[in-house]
Amino acid sequence: MMLLALINIIDYLISIVIILVVVQFVLSLLFSFNVVDRHSQWAGGLWQAVNALLNPVLRPIQRMMPDTGAIDFSPMVLIVLLTVLQKILAALAMASIQ
């Protein structure tokens, strides 16, 4: 029972990180197309907060990946890795129930 609760907590945390990656992506698009000013207080603060949370996770992935120029694939790799981890945790949860 305790293992199932721990797996659920980790699953929620993984979901939050995935949402943060999507928020970072959307913000970068909004900044790139000048929809939102990067110097506005709320957008700049949100951008800094999301980057402060994600950079420690994304930096090791960026170092391992080959240089692809202007396109950064590390957020997509992170999402794939976290999704795989969620699937493994779901299988563990199912195994602990039986």
List the helices and strands and how they pair.
Layout (H helix, E strand, L loop, with lengths): L1 H31 L8 H24 L9 H24 L1
Helix pairs in contact: 1-2, 1-3, 2-3
List the defining traits of the structure above.
98 residues, single chain, elongated, mainly alpha
What does this protein look like?
The protein has 98 residues and is mainly alpha-helical. The protein has one domain. Helices cover 81% and strands 0% of the residues. It contains three helices and no strands. Helix 1 crosses helix 2, helix 1 runs antiparallel to helix 3 and helix 2 crosses helix 3. The mean pLDDT is 93.
Please provide a brief summary of the model.
By secondary structure, the chain is an all-alpha fold. Helix content is 81%, strand content 0%.
